[in-house]
């Protein structure tokens, strides 16, 4: 018997297989969960397809009320969700509580959104209405860094727009998604929300299925490309939120201490496993040494521990494969630059690495060019604004970026030149359900959040009526 079951067709079901979930802070099994076979993935798609016509007929206000109820249920279960989130993902309990509060807030906002329909002509000659219809069955496929929040990013807009959904979490973080399934069972009509798990073997099965109308995906660029290829046959709709290599550009006029704290927080949130983390800091020559010293001081002071331990600020890396990947980045950083803080694997069970600051690296070095997705921050020296803008833009990614300056106008004029879906001034990862979030270049396709994001879960349809003569 597994500890957590899947939600298929309104029932909590055992898997044809089971899988163990490892706590990355201890490397011990902390739960055994149901895992779907292809037969069960097929059942989930069929349940969603069967539920879709009825769900589209449910008035928007009722669909909104259901999403609000899900937010209420998350609040009512916040403590056990937060604990499970820390145990499966590794993040400190306070961050897990923050993720749950975010999930609630996003759902509450989705529940206020209207499906924007417009009348563009209504006169004696005719009536033209631009309508927005739901698409059908959505496949939501997500990564392991924010398993509860991003599950809500897929479920909320999909069902508000009148679609049904099959959600599949990442294989290493299935628990909170399955707990969400337990809550959804008591709220949504059978089949509207289905949650299945896999061992990294069912994503392609879902995206290839002709009954799937849209794929909402959060994950790596490599997998995003595979999904795009797989979706081509049925011309499925896609929203792809992919990788990033966000630059933080620090101008010469900043308060070093305050800015270092902002950069540090944005680089090491969730142990650096954030699509929108600062992954390369460009610092002006005149303050380069001072900024490196301050970042190193913050890194040395950070408390790295099991996320359930009192006072933990940075937890472990989420899974062994990512841990090995980040350790390889550490070696290349050591080769190419100078490590001024961290750089050590912690001698204990769990996938722990101290937050690491590496200086004297530059573009062309692996730790600068690639997405490390872990607790290593390269700090790069620059002296010319045009040059740093060109270097920031030379990346194949374009998810987020930030410019730090005591002169906001000056910061904005540099921000304006950065090719990125989000560009912040004097902050980073400032996201919200009302703020459109997009990736340019290899960071993604389409938009999430806000009315623009909701529109991507609909199909535009025009009714054009002749009147008079
Ligand atoms: P991943 O692409 O390996 O896996 C993501 C999901 O895709 C998992 O559920 C996985 O099982 C599934 N999957 C694997 N192969 C598939 C296939 N062929 N078809 C369909 N689905 C498949 O990514 P990851 O390693 O879990 O996550 C890390 C990456 O995600 C990083 O690059 C990070 O930047 C990115 N990410 C982006 C955002 C964003 O909003 N832009 C948010 C979080 C993470």
UniProtKB/TrEMBL annotation:
Q: Does the keyword Chloroplast apply?
A: no
List of catalytic residues: 241
GO terms assigned for molecular function: oxidoreductase activity, acting on the aldehyde or oxo group of donors, NAD or NADP as acceptor
> Pfam families from the entry?
Aldedh
CDD domains, alphabetized:
ALDH_AldA-AAD23400 (cd07106)
User: Can you tell me which family this protein belongs to?
Assistant: Belongs to the aldehyde dehydrogenase family.
Q: What is this protein called?
A: Aldehyde dehydrogenase
Q: Which organism is it from?
A: Sphingopyxis macrogoltabida
